Amino acid sequence: MQDLSIYIHIPFCVRKCAYCDFLSSPQDEETREKYVCALVRSIRAGAPFCAPVEQNQAHEDSCSAEKCRAEDRLVRTIYLGGGTASLLTPGQILRILEAVFDTFRVDPDAEITLECNPGTASPENLLAFRRCDVNRLSVGVQSMNDRELAMLGRIHTAQDAVRTVRAARGAGFENLSLDLMSALPGQDFETFRASLHGIMQMEPEHLSVYSLILEEGTPLAERALKGTLPEIPGDEEDRRMYYYTREYLERFGLEQYEISNYALPGRQSSHNVGYWTGREYLGFGLGAASWYAGRRFHVTRSLQQFIEDPCHEKNLEEISVLSLREQMEEFMFLGLRMTQGVSGKDFLQRFGQEMDEVYRDPIRRFTDAGLLVREEDRIRLTFRGLDLANTVMAEFLL
Q1: What fold is seen in the domain 324-394?
Q2: Which of 1, 15, 192, 227 has minimal CB crowding within 10 Å?
Q3: Which residue, 212, 261, 248, is CA-closest to 233?
Q4: CA distance 128 to 340
Q5: Arch. (CATH architecture) of 2-276
Q6: Interval 150-163: pLDDT, tens
Q7: Exposure string (b/e) for 60-93, b if CB count within 10 Å is 16 or more?
Q8: Boundaries of CATH 1.10.10.920 in the chain?
Q9: Which long-range contacts (CB under 8 A, 24 or more apart) does 340-343 make?
C-alpha cells in the first residue's frame, strides 16, 4: 500500500503580514463558512485528484466515480495550513477532518498538523482542536522581539507566543513545531541569538528557522525599494546566524534533518519529509498543489470560483505530466535538502536506473570537492555542502 499525504489550505488571516506573499487574506465569518462548505464538498467528492470531467456531466458524481483510484493509498499525514488555519472554529476543523476520514483510508497513527498563529486560538479552542484528533501544532512565532514582530506586521507579541504555547501544552499537545525567522531588517547576531534563546525556553519538539526573503510586491519589499527599510544583515552575518543555530540547538537535542529544520529524534515533520522524498500528495482548497499519478496541478486561486463550484474541472490549473527526467531532478533536488541525503537503492527502485550512472559527473565532482559524501548507498551534503546547497543542487538538473 503506497503512502499519501493530504494538504488542506485555509486562505484566511487576521491581517496580511508585511513580508507575506502567500495566498491568504482577511475575510468575514460568512465567507469563511462558505469556503469550509465548498472545501468539504471537494474533499467528499474526491476532487481534485479525479480525471477532468466534461462540462455537461454532474461534477460531484463524476468525481465520486473516480474515488477508487486512491483507495489503495494510506494517508500518513494531514496538514491544515494557510493563512491561519486556527482562525477556523473547532467545529469547522472537525467537519473538514471528518470529510477526509470518510473519503480516504487514514492511518490510525497519522500525523495531523494545524498551523496556528499566536493570538488566534484561545485555550478553549486549542483543547477542542486536540479533541478533533489534531496531534501536532505548528506555531508561527517568527521572533521573540516585539520591535521585529511589529516591523513584520505580526499581530502578536513575544508574550502572546509564550501564552499560546503554554495553552497548547495545557490542551495536551505533545508535538509542537515553532517557526523563527532570521536575517530580519535591523537585526544583528545578538538580537537573533536572543530570539533563538527565548524560543527554546518554550521547549519545542521541532523548530523551523528561515532567513527572510523579500518577495516582490510585499510591503517590506516596497520599503526596501524606497530605502526606508532598516538594513538587512549581509551574507556573512546571515551565515553566522545559521551556524550558531545548528550548534545551539544540538545542546537541546534538536538535530538538523533538513536545511532549515531541526527536531528531537522521531519528531521530524513527516508531512514535509514526504515532500522531500517524493511521496504523492493531494492538495485541497484554494491554490493547493497536488502531485499525484504522475501529474502536477493546483486548484484555482479565485475564491469566488472555488466557493461557487468546488468540484468543477475549471478549478484545476496548470495540469502537467512530469517526464522521467523531471522526476529524477526533483528526487535529487528535494532529497539533497535533507541531511540524510538520497538513497541509490530508492532511486533505482523508483526510476529503474542507477543513480551513479545518471549523475556520475556531479557526484564525482562534488565528492572530490568535499561538498558531498557517500555513506553506503546514500549521498548527502556535507556541512560545507549544506552552506552551498543551491549551487550543488542546481548541478543535478539534467
Answers
A1: Arc Repressor Mutant, subunit A (1.10.10)
A2: 227
A3: 212
A4: 37
A5: Alpha-Beta Barrel (3.20)
A6: 999 999 999 999 99
A7: bebbbbebeebeebebbbbbbbbbbbbbbbbebb
A8: 324-394
A9: 340/257, 340/378, 340/380, 341/375, 341/378, 341/379, 341/380, 341/381, 342/378, 342/379, 342/380, 343/377, 343/378
